[in-house]
Amino acid sequence: MTTSGGAAPMTAAMTGGAPGGSAEDFLLALLNTTPVVDGVPTDELAGPARGRSWLAGQGGDGTEAEWRQVRAARDVLQAVVRGDRPADDLAPFLAGAVSVPGLEGGRVSWTLQAAPDRRLAVGAVLAWDQLARRRPGRLRPCANDSCHLFLIDRTKGNTARWCSMAACGNRLKARRHYQRSRPGA
For 151-160, what is each residue's pLDDT tens digit? Predict the structure, then answer.
């Protein structure tokens, strides 16, 4: 996988995500740590203990410093994807990160070097950048205004609007149908 502009290729290992997961999977999981459950906004990274447990499950160290970095990066990434903040606001999360080439099995591989507590935050920003370059406009918030989740549109026509058709799509379609079919509507 490469990024445009001569940048080094990014591998899932560089993002620091859960073993076997892709950079996109990690990014989406991170963005979706603030779901609305039974009408109440929640945050899977809300407290240090809960957040550290989530990070450890994603291949992180689960330290409090890592939790602070990842939570801050998540908040800025969510705002950038929603269009509420400029992408330049992500720059501080990349400070000090270096991509180092090496040979592995006769092929060039790239390793992310960043402070351990910053590795997952840097990886999330790199995953966002790679997705924005390779498939612009495919990462977006769910079209349901009361949902706080995000989606990566993998449809051929770039037409996906809902985080889940079952959870949000059907609900909103049913609501619109009900409003249209009511007498006097």
Answer: 888 878 776 7
